[in-house]
Amino acid sequence: MDTQRALLAAAAAIVVVSAIGVAATPAAVGDPRAPPDRAGTVDLADVVIAPGAVRGETVRLDLRTALRHRGPATQNVTVRHRALDANSGLLADETVVDVGSIDGDRETEVNGSVTVERSGGYRLETVVYADGQRRDRRATRVAGVSALEPSYADSPVGFAAATSWPTIAVSVVETDDATATLSVAVAVTNRGDEAAGGLDLRLLLRQADSNLIADEATESVESIQAGRTDTVTTRVTVPDGYNYYVDVALFDDDVLIDETQGVANLDPETTISANETVRDVSFETEDFSERDDEADASGQRPVSESETEDATPGFGVVAGVLALLGWSLLARRRR
Predict the structure, then answer these.
(1) Which CATH class is domain 155-301?
(2) Is pLDDT above 90 for 263?
(3) Pick among 2.60.120.260, 3.40.1190.20, 3.30.450.90, 2.60.40.10: CATH of 41-147
(4) pTM of the model
(5) C-alpha dihedral over 202, 207, 212, 215, to 10 degrees?
(6) What is the separation of C-alpha 147 from the centre of its chain, rounded to a whole number of angstroms?
(7) φ/ψ of residue 102, rounded to 5
(8) Where do the structural domains in the chain lie, given as residue ranges?
(9) Rounded to 10 degrees, what is the CA torsion of 180, 208, 300, 320?
């Protein structure tokens, strides 16, 4: 009887000790089918690139990153941004943003930036790390960085770029034996939301062959209402019978805002064209010579002896020398 009681007491003691052990370490007898504890997951939900501060030589590119997190807390999260030159692959700039710990099922916005030269294109790489281990990566290409205007040159006023209406319109006001007076009308548009102006419009006429400045002018651009296009007109006088490039620029306190180019074709035999990126405006003096009082019935103005000897004093010396050399060579051949 005593032996039976002793065995029952020992069995009871074993049960009590086992129960205490299970209470202390519940994981030891947990469900073997349950997944083990693990760290949360973090990846890149979205990366948005926007231009930041634009300077003369550099531009800051802002990267707005959305991190998506699921599960338990993830420690030591960092985001690294790199800007690589699109052609050479060389590293242009790199920045690392320390995010810290993220927990719960949510998205977290992380802002970073890189600074690159305002030219060419770049490959932007964004990588997210957790405890020094790479979790996700995304790459984006940007091009045309040079098209971003610096902050000091940011103005809503610029040259009009209409489909049919000319940006630069040149007309002949009057001509004499050697010169032509031209009226140049330039279309200027305010693309902003408020009235703007207070700019200087500077105009140069370059002789096409010699690239010499034949004449120049400066006009003030008054206040232009939002969305409106105004015309700024000026006059210049140049030697007749030559072709000219009409270079026009807008300045704000000596800061170049915008520029465009047209042409004035006053040579009846040859013509020139402006850059393909701007509107070409071509004119010839002959189209307007019928207004001259000396025009005959056929519409041709008689040429005086003084004009044949020296038609345009501005650029006729070279032509006279070449003609003289030509007659000398012809006389030698006849001998």
Answers:
(1) mainly beta
(2) yes
(3) 2.60.40.10
(4) 0.49
(5) -40
(6) 1
(7) -130, 135
(8) 41-147, 155-301
(9) 100
